[in-house]
Amino acid sequence: MVVSEVNYPGWEANVDGKPAPLITGDYALRTVPVLEGKHSIELKFRPEAFQWGLIVSALALVAIGIGFRATRKDRWLEGVRE
Which pTM was predicted? Predict the structure, then answer.
């Protein structure tokens, strides 16, 4: 099967629920080798850069939460000391 889209890192293929190789056909297109007959073909795009982006974003959110909590605690203690 040849898909008329550029083969880019991060694509995964499943044929009949099992992992299948993705190869580059016609110099740039995604190609999945399948045997003759009816098959269920599933293509998923899971780029590594996206996963790293999620990790960095989650860590940044945690850091912001810690910073906010530390700031609020210091302000509360200043009110108690006065």
Answer: 0.60
